[in-house]
Write a structure and sequence with these properties.
The protein is of the alpha+beta class and 410 residues long. The chain contains twelve helices and 15 strands.
Length: 410
Amino acid sequence: MRQLKPREKGYEEGLAAGRAIVGKWRPSSTSRLENWILATREAPTIICEDRDFAEAMGDLQRLHQEDLPVLATDLHRHKMDALPDLKIFPELAGMDQYLDEEAKGFAVGAGIDVGEVLLDRYCEEIYLDIARGYGLTVAQCSEYWFPETPNGPLLGKGWDDAMAWYRETPFALPSTDRGEPAVDEIPPQAEGLGYRCGGSGNEVGLCISIGGGAVYEYEAKPDRVLFPVPVNDLVLRSCATVYEAVEMLIRYNSYWGPCNLVVGDAQGRGALFEKSRYTYAVRMSGRNVLITTYGGCEEEDMRALCDTSTALFVYYERRLQVMKEIVAEAEAGEGLDLDVYWRSILHHDEEAPGCTHQETRPEGIELFTFGAYAHLPREGRSLARTLARVDGGLRYGCETPAVESRWRFT
């Protein structure tokens, strides 16, 4: 595992980043109160979980947009004052000062209030604190790990969400031009800051994907978490192997989740976490496929914390079953490749489709599929199939071509 030195020059780095977008900065869609209210109406079960919908909406509707930067500034201050024990979490040395100074520098560089910067940083957590009472992310996704394909290991992610966050996004139809894909150059960084990251992975081939999990209705209501670390960033900066990543994720158990998470390395080893707020189950894999999707969990200890009779959990079980059946049939025949991945993650089972269309969602399912991508760490490339708007209608990832991107560590 890479030893990271404390981050420095937060103000300078923030200032440079802010100056690079001065005059172009726009608040993220997830930082706008009107979208919080729309998303809660669109997906009340996913957002509120076991909290009363009317109470959640009442709390949201009592707020004004100008209240949110104030809430973010207050949360930031409490987070910076709650730095965990550096003997247990040495990777966090100096992070409180760095994050504080980076936000100030960015605000000055971009010519905006620092409260807006902090709101962009913490908006999902603030939203879920108000609507649900706790939570770090609204992500609801599927994760795959193929240890070997003709292109090496494959990390896959399917992306389900509510339209409320994307009302102003054009969703252009992906280009069918098969010319050379654009290459993102990843420049060197100062010694001691860890591995460089591109896409979902780092320069030595470790990659990670985090998404939605089960609701865990029978677990005690979680405490509010102060100073939750950017887990994915720390893992990718610090770790080269699945073993290193799993050790770090377990050590940081209190600072991430609830979710499902898959991590894999360039050697084809993988691990799958099913995680509630306080409890987790991890499944290690040397050469086996790993698949998960939002709405439920497989490990018995984790299922004991869930109401497995809900429409969402039943949907999860059927959706996962079909995903696995498609992959198992391919493993027994032609083997795993990109085409098998697309067929599995974008399947159209009538009861619980992997590619859930807005117009034909099963009863009790609030989200639909915006797309999926495949990350190939050995080749330094990713392919994505995403939602598009065509003639006023939606065309789903199952109906659009894959678009490739590459990166190069210079």
